[in-house]
Design a protein that fits this description.
Layout lengths: L6 E2 L2 E2 L1 H23 L6 H14 L12 H5 L3 E6 L1 H4 L38 H8 L6 E3 L31 E7 L2 H4 L1 H8 L13 H30 L4 E5 L19 H24 L3 E3 L2 H4 L33 H16 L3
Parallel strand pairs: 3-4, 3-5, 5-6, 6-7
Antiparallel strand pairs: 1-2
């Protein structure tokens, strides 16, 4: 009978042979499972690969089972996805090529030869702070874009030149993803524009914003939750080795607001919008839990720093937009202080996941 054990200098090296035998079985199993589960995504395949790392102990194999969650997040590339609350709209110092001025469109001699990109990726955004404060082995990528909706994660952003689908920035080497989206899909920006008492088809002086928009938002939330679960699952498929952190939305206004006509919103509408931000965060948290990704709620961290406070972390209403009586997009967005608070909160989650 032929001895199938590997021999060396006439001796049977049974330990090595057994190791190779087990590794071969594990590798074959992974191949079979990988084919069978191809439609499910990469997370299970990544877990199986980790198991092979434990068995074979190859030198080039990063065994994440021995790393802390924080260390795992640093093993590859950090990619920041999202909408205006992630891009840094309102935090200023925007990256070149993402700060097209809409007012240029008003000039009759504008030959329209510029790239129209208004993503407003700020150098003060929380993504930039996190990238600078942590040693990511693969560097960082920043593709969040002001005005982004869920569709912009899977399709090119037609409103901004040169913006690929945001999920295209993810791959197997991505080790951390931060993601903020849902506010525009719920129509918060449209609600704010409509609720500002500007006499241009907005809410009349005797109506409240809540009366006009509450039912529509209530009906939209369940559908939005399903869309978010699907998005988070797609992000996991694109970045099977990454920690994915969904970032929520802070309340814009103080808890007990006045009828402050500096921002032209009734006190009851400010309270209502704070409540709706809480409802959106509940949906984000629920969707994140179903998709097995992390969620960070900024509500408590921003408490006491809403509009109307002595130290607001948001920009108040600004009429600096293009044309007459138009709101500047930086209005009602976190300022540099707000993004520093976001970065601190996410850093805490990185180091001590909850």
């Amino acid at each position: 009978m032929i001895n199938t054990w590997r021999t060396r200098q006439g001796r049977t090296d049974r330990g090595t042979g057994a190791l190779e035998y087990v590794a071969a079985i594990a590798t074959g199993a992974v191949l079979i499972i990988g084919i069978a589960l191809a439609g499910i995504g990469g997370q299970l395949q990544a877990m199986a690969a980790e198991a092979i790392c434990s068995i074979t102990r190859q030198a080039n194999c990063v065994n994440r089972l021995t790393l802390t969650p924080y260390q795992q997040a640093l093993t590859g590339k950090y990619v920041a996805l999202g909408d205006s609350f992630a891009s840094g709209e309102g935090a200023w110092d925007y990256e070149e090529g993402t700060d097209y001025d809409d007012r240029d469109d008003l000039w009759p001699f504008n030959n329209d030869d510029e790239d129209h990109n208004r993503c407003h990726r700020s150098k003060n955004a929380y993504a930039q702070i996190l990238a600078a404060d942590n040693d990511f082995a693969g560097g960082s990528g920043f593709v969040a874009c002001s005005g982004a909706v869920i569709d912009d994660f899977t399709r090119p952003n037609g409103d901004n030149t040169g913006e690929d689908p945001q999920l295209a920035a993810l791959n197997d080497d991505t080790s951390l993803v931060t993601l903020s989206v849902g506010g525009n899909d719920l129509g918060f920006a449209d609600v704010l524009r409509d609720c500002v008492i500007n006499g241009e088809g907005g809410v009349g002086m005797i109506d409240s914003c809540q009366e006009k928009h509450d039912q529509r938002i209530s009906e939209r939330l369940p559908e939005l939750r399903s869309e978010l679960v699907e998005l988070y699952q797609k992000a996991r498929q694109k970045a099977p080795n990454a920690r994915i952190i969904v970032v929520g939305y802070p309340p814009l206004f103080v808890e007990d607001p006045d009828d402050d006509y500096g921002n032209l919103l009734f006190a009851e509408d400010q309270e209502w919008m704070n409540e709706r931000a809480g409802d959106l965060n509940a949906v984000l948290a629920s969707a994140a839990a179903e998709a097995s990704v992390e969620f960070v709620d900024p509500t408590d961290a921003f408490r006491g720093h809403g509009l109307g406070s002595d130290d607001p972390w948001f920009n108040d209403l600004d009429w600096g937009g293009p044309g007459l009586m138009l709101v500047d997009p930086s209005s009602f967005h976190p300022n540099a202080k707000g993004h520093a608070a976001f970065a601190k909160l996410i850093q805490q989650q990185l180091e001590d996941p909850r």
